[in-house]
Amino acid sequence: MHKVYHRIEQIAGNVITVTASGVANGELAQVVGTLGVSLAQVIRLDKDKVYLQVFAGSRGIATDGQVRFLGHTMDVSFTDALLGRVFNGSGQPRDNGPALDENRIPIGGPSVNPAKRIIPRKMVRTGIPMIDVFNSLVESQKLPIFAAAGEPYNELLARIALQAEVDIIILGGMGLKHDDYLQFRDTLEAHGALSRSILFVHTAADPTVECQMVPDMALAVAEQFALQNKRVLVLLTDMTSFADALKEIAITMEQIPSNRGYPGDLYSQLASRYEKAVDFEGAGSITILAVTTMPGDDVTHPVPDNTGYITEGQFYLRHGRIEPFGSLSRLKQQVNARTREDHRTVMNTMIQLYASFKETLEKQSMGFRMSAWDNKLLKYGARFEKEMMDLSVNIPLEAALDLGWQIMADCFEPEETGIPSKLVASFWPKKTA
Amino acid sequence: MSQKSGRVVAVNGNMVSIGFQGNVAMNEVVYVLSKGKRLKSEIIRVKGSEAQAQVYEITKGIRIGDEVEFSEEMLSVELGPGLLGQIYDGLQNPLPEIAEQKGFFLESGVYLRALSRSKRWSFSPQAKPGDILRRGDCIGSVPELHFTHKIMLPFDFFGEWTLADIVPAGEYGVEDAIAHVRDQRGVERELRMMFSWPVKRAVDCYVERLKPKQPMVTKTRIIDTFFPVAKGGTYCIPGPFGAGKTVLQQVTSRNADVDIVILAACGERAGEVVETLKEFPQISDPRTGRSLMERTIIICNTSSMPVASREASVYTAVTIAEYYRQMGLDVLLLADSTSRWAQAMREMSGRLEEIPGEEAFPAYLESLIAGFYERAGLVLLNDGETGSVTIGGAVSPAGGNFEEPVTQATLKVVGAFHGLNRERSDARRYPAIHPLDSWSKYPGMVDAKQVEEARDVLRRGNEVNQMMKVVGEEGTSIEDFVMFLKSEFLDAAYLQQNSFHDVDAATDADRQTYVFAKIHKILHARMFFPDKDAARRWFLQLTAVTKDWNLVLMKSPEFKQLEERLDGMLAEVLENA
Ligand SMILES: Nc1ncnc2c1ncn2[C@@H]1O[C@H](COP(=O)(O)OP(=O)(O)O)[C@@H](O)[C@H]1O
Ligand SMILES: [Mg+2]
Questions:
Q1: Where exactly does CATH 2.40.30.20 map onto chain A?
Q2: What is the value of ipTM here, to two decimals?
Q3: In the CATH hierarchy, which top-level class contains the domain A4-73?
């Protein structure tokens, strides 16, 4: 029923051009090349010229290749049979299971009406003091881990995912190393979580166009589960690979780049994915934890920079630790007033003292004499790093707050901390000596 | 409809090209008919028999040959009673009603009327038959919540009009005829309570623009005391992500001493708007005792909503602000973030393949930014009253670097600059407005000389701190060291303010004047300390007591007690003691 076109007029990058009529923007097509059949998507229409990006890439496509339009836009099957399965960026199985075709839902759908959102109020406990105490994670939050290449970001992602109380975990892998993909799968399996997980995985060896589809695919499925009252956690790693895939197509389409080759709509593109994180009024929720690797360890690089403006904070992973500076949970104040009355004060005071410690460290490195105050700060900083920041620490929030008071009491007099006197009266540990 | 007709000939992102016959106007609203939906769009370029339009919706599904309908109207907003307390998208669609009709998602092609057609308003006529009227003149009023909402001669009724007849006091809907007017040639026109105005054109029905002088109190100490904003003025808040732009705007929207606040949530997070729209109805406005929502209008076009309507949203917001200004009210417009608006223009300029300027922003960026802020102002109205629109815009510079086109273009035109600083926010020194880099051209409410002296302490304290990094504490004189401690004290005890504490979050004008006088006295005092450690200990203690002081109500007994403690502490270290 759909017309087949046999003449490909232009092939540039992963984009092909055919002359056709009656085609819709965003429509899917099947392209047959010498290396097999691939899906392609209409990305621009100009009179009778149709531009398509080919998911498997243009390699092996000849000018006499076949293009058949499918009459619908990109979609994905939504069923419970997705659970425990692994797919690629085109939605094809990556495991040995059967392809799924029932109940197809479009991907990249409209955004949620802000009037139908609710204020998130549920803290997600992770057992990591740098998160629970200083930057609490909240259900429905969108939050990336900023890290340089080589940092253990995927391990951290998996650890939080397994510790969080959620109904469904959806992994969107982009540009993943094959080993990392297997590691994720095995970790989920070992913890008995694979049966409530769905994996959409694009590996570094797969065509880049498929990389672009992964977040939409993962989030469309997540949205359906959330509407069915499920609490869904979506893991997206690595969003920098996703942005690079966007850059590649923008350059092929000769768009004017805005910053280091990235297209001017990078912000909107990232936002339309991250904004899928939601707490639905009267239904479930989507929490998004992502990874944004920072080329050259530079937060001002366009990808982390635009991401930081979109997400509700970030965990800054550096030298294997979550840095207190640069890390932020913008939703923490939604939850940390109702945990324990000293939570906010411990959080603010310990960070301010740690900032003073850093200054002292600088002075010390320049060889200045250390004052009595400096020595107190040095003692404090060392303990803070060892007992709070180290990622091997795994204790509940309340224990971490108690520990915070203990460290401060071991290092300072109460008034040196600037803590309001009321809280000092009820929380400052009594001297044991 | 006219004989105009058009069809889609190209689709590129959110821009379509239309082949048309007949006449087409720049900025005319057109509808692309796609799959049974009407997708609102705006003509942004005309070339021969082809025009480009930005589509205010996702363009997925549009085909070559899809029909285009012409409205013969420019993008406009509805003005009339019923705007207060509303939550609109960038095109003035009421979001709660869309949610009621369509559920969770913003389907494309759904447009609802901004003003309720079923609601009745209690109209009292004021003008009398025979009265000569000019545009903007008041013909009557209706109570809208606790405001007297003036019903005015529509702003596009140029020239002189004579009132022919007017209805008696009673209940009317916004579309009911309430009066008739005649121009000099005898042409008669009907008046309703509602009319529309094209958003991209400034409302200019006033006698003259006046110089903004009166401070708009925000209850944020560092702003009101050090970098004040005047009613009718403009200011900007640039800052890297996470530095506190949104929180600062949120507290300002609660506490600002104005009649009406319009929040333009422009291309940022939906969640932040949700906080406002769920919390404001619960919070009471200390000025009126009514809910804060009653003085607020939210224009919400967040980051995942269509980019073209983001571009329109700031204009929608400022037009509504001007409308209430015409009633003699003080209106504050807060836009978060103007950079997203600029980016929306950049996206469209790119699709039009215009020659790009710096960072691919269009060459006309500066003039559009200037034009937007120029819509702020204090004006003398026809009836002798004044009204004002104050604009505060957040700016989100790429990489946190202020040397970028949007920040630079904005700094050229605003009256105050509240620059947020990454080091300060990292050190949790909120609000992270940089006390040395920021500036304001407006007069404040605190004695200017004392403020200058306090800034001088900050400057000198900063110099000492820089010097100490080179020569160390031991190489610093005790006088210099005390200067440094004084500047740190001023910072911690006065400039920093906890936005999440009930009392500390809002310091009114009286309290600021009172507390600042005390702080100034401390800064001014000549102090004696035996050594630096003693000085540091004393200042830490002083800071702790002052911070406690900030947390108690001014009329509470603790306020007096803590003040006495401060006085006592100061007496201990005075040089002549
Ligand atoms: N005045 C303040 N008091 C306390 N915390 C603040 C303040 N301003 C900002 N913060 C903290 O910083 C976070 C980011 O602030 P936000 O205003 O959202 O930044 P921006 O809009 O500049 O990206 C907030 O979620 C909050 O945790
Ligand atoms: Mg913000």
A1: 4-73
A2: 0.92
A3: mainly beta
